[in-house]
Amino acid sequence: MTELALDIQGLDVAIAGTPILRKVTLQLPQGSMAGLIGRNGAGKTTLMRAVMGLLPSRSATLACAGESMAQLPAHTRAEHGISYLPEDRRLIPSLTVEENILLPAWANGLGDARRRLAWIYELIPELLEHRERKALQLSGGQQKLVALARALMPGRKLLLLDEPFEGVAPVLSRRLTEVIAKLRTEGLTVLLSESDDKHSADLVDRIFRIERGVVRESSATH
Q1: Which GO terms describe its biological process (predicted)?
Q2: pTM of the model
Q3: Does the N terminus or the C terminus of the chain have fewer Cβ atoms within 10 A?
């Protein structure tokens, strides 16, 4: 039986009393890559934030690699190898590229941070060239690469990528696609959200459609 990197069953999320997600069921086998496709406001970010423990939720099952996450505080998700790339990047402008990448390691006391950093620089070598630059000095697309690298620092099992291509110039969108495609060979499980499947169609194994807080698996791409 294939181990599930992410197992969500019957997930409900309400914000200020308004239901946002309704009985969401979504399962990702270990090492798979899936797209979460839906228009703005459909609930993509809410779902990812609920998995990260950043929003209160109710569910029958919310587990990563067979371990229940439902009652764990949000700050412990990184310790369990789960990481999140928010749409708005949320880098600290005054810190350097390398400092931004290392932030999760400092916050979570990761003992192998330097080894992990070397792997990230091998995966995204252009960041090594920019490691001493302030995040504020980078373009939007370059900042997305830094934010992805930061997510990779603790993200050893599951990566949640929220609109990674949004607002990025075409040349850097292609570069992001290349980097994300390489993650498949690293055994990581990836859930990637987009408003359409323009960028993700050739990356993912399966597609989930979300509309008005309801998720349905629509297809396997290959």
Answers
A1: L-amino acid transport
A2: 0.92
A3: N
